[in-house]
Design a protein that fits this description.
The structure is a homodimer of 331-residue chains.
Chain A: H1 2-18, E1 25-33, H2 42-64, H3 69-82, E2 102-108, E3 114-120, H4 126-136, E4 141-143, H5 144-153, H6 161-164, H7 167-179, E5 195-200, E6 206-212, E7 222-223, E8 233-235, E9 240-246, H8 248-254, H9 256-266, H10 271-286, E10 290-296, E11 301-305, E12 309-316, E13 322-326
Parallel strand pairs in A: 3-4
Antiparallel strand pairs in A: 1-5, 1-12, 2-3, 2-6, 5-6, 8-9, 9-10, 10-11, 12-13
Helix pairs in contact in A: 2-3, 3-4, 8-10, 9-10
Chain lengths: 331, 331
């Protein structure tokens, strides 16, 4: 009898897991930046909008066809890593030794499974490596040489340093080095252009992923919030999926991504109230600048930043692809 | 007028910061373990109790004399790192390459400032390095070779591998290697004996610190929850200070330490309800075993685990030094 009841429950579970609604949502970001909007060149603005729109367009088709949110966020972030426009994968910024150290994380809101990598060199797509950590190791978080050795063992693409090099990041690095009269002022530039994605799929499952090259002129071995589960990246079907961008140290101290989820889960906040409370008040009061994208379990999408510029875009089953850059632009 | 008002406020602030109450609290742990209580040798049990009591005794004197909680937790964890009885500093477990990779974190509940290090080799006291990261770099989190280079630049003690070697950890490592027929089963042993401390000082400020050698036979570069701010370590004067111990991967996925604080702050839980909900339900349901110590802003102390054994101890301004090991032992 008990066995029958368990079987019946298992069947209901299976049915639920397979039930597809028509609803899905996707939000991506290409970083929040403290640069003045007037400084942004029209050509760069157009290129960023086109890159975000192309990713949204392709991943939207997959979600509409029933792709899982975990695949959607991995693909979106991998595509943004491959673009030299953003500080992740190709186009990553330089640390104080003139090297690229990358970090990324991915999280499945259904199972709370997660994978993350930090301080990895040469790996073309850190988000793909993060997912391999999640699915093919007993661990959640690998760093440094150990993460690189695992990437090699998995046969992931490893690139030479010139692949990651861009003229823009090299100029920023040289400027930051010149301006580095005081240690603390040296790393305040170039923390933007982290990339991330959050999605709700047609099975009602949430997922989040984030990837970055970190801060220009950062100390070797420095880890930011992007790869820290709970700080830059979090997803739980009980609340929402979040990917953050900004001055990572403040987001770690606030445990920002999990705190946004916790406000929704425990304080009954809606998504906007939760993000504004955590980023506007907790992170903002510490002095942290940046933003976050979010999708909740009802499929509501949101992008919010306390900076003037945040590269972002969204698409859902009922709204077409939209991109936005400036503070007051609607998403 | 405005200036005067600001000055008056500043003076009030100063007075508040300096106001000393008679209340202080300290809790330490030496790890939660999944071993059966009957396996524990009486000699080891006595040695662990004595080590915890000695640390509590000394740090209690400092707290009673007005030492800040941040100094208290750093000292307590440093002392436990120096003991070969625990899996942190001297006595750390071996990774799958037969090496010691250490991690630690410290957090100040008053300012939400934090410092953390992971995958560092040779540093005698990782918790001291974590505090240096917090106070002497623009970053929160350093890992690997970069963290070691910073430790050298700061003049911290660097030890050769034989310093960390203990007969017990080497035996566990050899056993784990022999048992490692399947990758996922290889790391389930030896995750206990992480150390941590939480304190409330006479100024009403909370702090937390955690340090560990991780898991026996872990992959090189693996990072657990101890150094992840929000997972194994968190402190906020708005709620409580927490240090966790156990199977770190599950604590990262639950963002356990911050989630305990969030339940107190947002859901109005008391300390026990918050810890039981997060460790008993969220972490426990994922399959994670372990525990946490906590002190809230009123000075209430708590140690809770879903394992049979957790090395722990506490002392406050009104209760003497007590240690406990088994599940039903009162603290």
């Amino acid at each position: 009898m008990a066995v029958k009841r368990r079987r019946a429950r298992a069947l209901i579970g299976l049915k639920r897991a397979r039930a597809r609604s028509a609803c899905w949502s996707l939000v991506v970001h290409g970083g929040a930046s403290t640069i003045r909007p007037s400084v942004l060149q029209p050509a760069r603005e157009a290129a960023v909008r086109a890159a975000l729109a192309a990713v949204l367009d392709d991943v939207a088709k997959a979600l509409a066809s029933g792709a899982p949110s975990l695949d959607a966020v991995e693909t979106a972030v991998r595509r943004l890593e491959d673009s030299p426009l953003f500080n992740a994968g190709k186009g990553a910024v330089f640390n104080s030794h003139g090297e690229h150290e990358l970090e990324a994380a991915i999280m499945d809101g259904r199972t709370l499974e997660a994978g993350a990598v930090a301080a990895v060199r040469g790996v073309k797509n850190p988000v793909v490596l993060a997912r391999r950590v999640m699915e093919r190791t007993p661990h959640v978080y690998l760093q440094g040489e150990g993460a690189l050795a695992f990437a090699r063992a998995e046969g992931l693409e490893i690139m030479t340093p010139d692949y990651f090099w861009t003229e823009e990041c090299w100029s920023s690095f040289k400027e930051a080095r010149l301006a580095a009269t005081a240690r603390r002022s040296a790393v305040d530039s170039g923390s933007g252009e982290t990339v991330g994605a959050v999605a709700l799929d047609r099975y009602g499952n949430l997922a989040a992923a984030t990837s970055t090259g970190g801060m220009t002129n950062k100390m070797p071995g420095r880890v930011g919030d992007s790869s820290v589960i709970g700080a830059g990246t979090y997803a739980s079907n009980a609340s929402c999926a979040v990917s953050c961008t900004g001055h990572g140290e403040y987001f770690i101290r606030a445990a920002a991504a999990r705190d946004i989820c916790a406000r929704i889960e425990y304080a009954g906040n809606d998504a906007r109230a939760a993000v504004q409370a955590v980023l506007g008040r907790r992170v903002g009061r510490l002095g942290g600048r940046g933003g976050a994208i979010l999708v909740d379990r009802a499929g509501h999408v949101l992008a919010w930043a306390n900076t003037d510029v945040m590269y972002r875009g969204a698409v859902t089953h009922k709204t077409p692809v939209r991109t936005a850059i400036y503070r007051r632009e609607p998403l």
